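Write out the 3D structure for:
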Amino acid sequence: MSLPFYGWEVSYDDDSPRVELGASQEPKDRGIYTMYHGTSIANARLIITNGFRQSSGGMLGKGVYVSRDRKKAERYPLKSNPSDRVALELRVRVGRVKRIDKDNHPMQYTWNSHGYDTAWVPPNCGMIAVPSGLEEDCVFDPKNIKVVGIARAAQNVLTELQQLLADSPQNQGSDWGAASNAGGVAADVCSVCRRKTPQSSPHIQQPCWGCGENVCALMTKHVCPVRF
């Protein structure tokens, strides 16, 4: 029995990681990734204006707690009124990454002293400290995190926060909005495949000849629902 399939799926083995990874994908050292942080409206204003501050402790010790899972960020602060929740979109330089995937891991609180910049807890790893089973990251140095957008906020504060972000001194004269490749050359991000592109060589995008969806040839996967 044959099954018709229109589309493709590929796996990249290069050293140029996507800016957006799935929650279960392991981050590569020195990558720059899109992540999210959930907080209150009041704290969102402070973070946008002054940047992040390192927490004094937590399940992974000192650092800033973020996640590549937007849905997880949108749950915070826990037990708060949903109208007071804000999810900030971030660009994060992960540096050297340590995987922490079990309770009482020997480096659960000391990974930074061993030369790591970020601790990564993969989803559904069974840690008691993560009852939700959702992916989590702890970035030791707040300077490696930049707010680039408002992923979620109540309508009555969304415009205010967006304007605050546009006016933030953290955004003045910075190219943090663009990822950089291994050689340090500034790069943009393709809006379709979410892979880094040199500024002088944007990816070619065009409608799929089958379903009409806008596609990029460097997408890892595209399945066309059209049947002929």
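The two ends are 17 Å apart (CA to CA).
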